[in-house]
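Below is one protein, fold included:
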Amino acid sequence: MLAVLATLVATGECASAESLAEARKLYETGDYAACQDAAAKGVESNRWFEEWWLLKIRTELTTGKYADALKTFEAAHQIHTFSLPLKWIGVEVLRRSGRADEATGLLQSIRELAEAAPRRLEEVSSRVAAGRAMLATGADARVVLETYYDRAKKDDPTSAEPYFASGELSLAKFDYALAAEAFAGALKRAPDSPDAHLGLALAYQESDAERATAALTKSLELNPRHIDSLLFQADNLIDREGYQAAEDILAKVLEINPRHSRAWAYRAVLAHLAGDTTKEQTSRAEALSTWIANPEVDHLIGLKLSQKYRFAEGAAYQRRALEVAQNYQPANVQLCQDLLRLGKDEEGWKRAAAALEADPYNVVAYNLVSLNDVLSKYRILENAHFRLRMDGREADLYGDRALRLLTRARERLTKRYGVEIAGPVSVEVFPKQSDFAIRTFGLPGGSGFLGVCFGPVITINSPASRMARPANWEAVLWHEFCHSVTLGKTKNKMPRWLSEGISVYEERRENAAWGQSMTPEYRELILAGGATPVSQLSGAFLKPPSPMHLQFAYYESSMVVQYIADRFGENTIGKVLADLGDNVRINDALAKRTVPIDQLDANFDAWLKEQASKLGKPGTDWKRPEVALDAGSAEMAAWNKEHPNSFYGLLGEGRALLAEEKFAAAKTPLSKAIELYPTSGQAGGPYLLMAAVHRALKEPADERRMLEKHVALDADGIEPRLRLAELAEAAGDWPAVRVAAEQIIAINPLIPAPYRLLAKSANSIGDRRLAMESHRALLMLDPLGKAEHHYQLAKLLVEEKQLPAARNQIIRALEEAPRFREGHRLLLEIAAGMDREGAAPNTRPVPAQGATQPARSQ
């Protein structure tokens, strides 16, 4: 009889397992109603089979039937009293039923059971549930990972569950690489799980937009009603300002679960962005209606507002989250970042340290605390309006220059846009790109960013981080401070495209070589219909198909600003900014100040295509030659005979003739290339090639003219400016030498060449202050020439009648070169001068140890 009974039980469990798999398939594909019916029947037919209870509760939670989930849990708990997976899902049920205190007690009971009776962890699901409960009650994350999740993977290598748990833990700690590895492991074991594909999308969202999009698409393909995937989709739409589309997605989620807290939190975000305070409050209340102390709601609202640069509002929401759950680390870490972006450093850094102490495995907190140690060694330069923090050596080299530039930008831009900036703007300059990324984003990455502005705080990469690919740091600083102005004008309520567009536009206004201009690549993209409509421009900055498309988004945005200023008046942009500050949405503000948005889209598109068609001389052929890149001049000439107005063909022929040292012949195609496209300032362009021709033919005046045309279009070229300075020096044109040197310092102030040029120019025109600044810079950058620079400084100080300071400099010169005869002569002159001025005997200079005595140096 026992054998028969065992057979019947086994047969029943086998049948239940088969139907359970079918029911789970219904859940995974989004047929929640059918799944719930199947689970109810399963429970009725076999109350001792725990998996049916778990599936029924899970489906009821997913569809927002929290009262039903509570009844199911209570019935199941009477039968499966010691089930850890049931207790774990029961925590969520109790929270959603307004019984958060009981949920806390249940969490503690899971931990106590796991610790008191390890045999209960033999099942993988029990071990994973215990690990999750341990984390929720403050256990060490590494211990949980190793003792619970990794052990579960070994116990059952076919189970995806511990991989899901590991991935969730990694995401919570901002360890995206480890999360991707974990979800990939889950996917191998559960290839049709939408949760696994969504996990990969979340893991790749910061590093690989293409893979993240593909993973999200697959998740929704498997289950079009997968709530977490739909919410991630809505999140992305909010980022790209697709607010109506996001609302449509949230409506789908609320059809499935009308009480979903995160969906209502996103609705609160949308209401806030629309300036609808009442709807924001009611949406937040709905989000908290089932669990009033749920910290995720306020954290999520605040996070999205901070991502929209509304850091003050975001910080306020994080504080709300922490009022109900003071140890909720996501809110702690986000509040820390918000405070640092608001310039509230003291509280921000304290919170970072506290967050790391509470969670030693949080990557963002660890990065910030480590960075604070680095920043503590930086130097601070200040004036009434700016607080500039940078590496000490760099501060000596160009800190004052940066402050002068920022002051000039403030005078011009605040007046132009009618803005008063309260308090000093903090500017932080990072010689290491990784430090910049951590200060800016909390994590390494962001290699495409030169600078970022949060309003009262600006972070930029210093030239030291871009030695291989220098960029004009003065243009970057001007661009970022312009953001401070426009963000201040709008109270941080502006779309990214407009903010970037104004900054690029103002770069061009300040310096024709700054900013961006039309290129053949942009021309082709525009004429092919690749420009983004004005009404959708913010989306162009998110997940662009290539780096060129991202750069084009900046350019196109600046052209929208230029179009509006030219067509509707310069003050129109300021009026739009004021409207945004009053909670008017961007498309409504544009329609109010210009024309209806559909008409603006069409009119701008036509205007931009007209600008593109004007690039170069009419009739210019932009087709690239169908010949090898290293083709000789004869082959290029043959191609050009069939395409006489081909800019790239003529450029190629000129380049080939230059390589073949047929310099005079190269003038013809290059002259025509310049005629066809006179605004080409790109590296390898016709002006640089023609300058090389003139140099080879020893025609310095013409070479200089070509180089001047090129640098007027290129803000980042160092070599052309060095050559210009050399030509100007040969011609005795010292003001031109100084201009070239100053322009090089604006690109890279960390190389000695421009300071040598400045020193020569300053000496020639009698500018002692500039000469002294230049030699002091060279003392830091030119270690082999220290004796000469100390000597030159001593001479200049003598002229300034600063004899003690001059004596110190000449002694330092002699320390570097003890047999420096001119140095000894100068030292004698200084000593005699000090005697004439009645210097005390003990102030006479003492030669450096090992130096030749002055009296014997003759």
Remarks:
- Confidence is low (pLDDT under 50) at residues 4-13, 840-858.
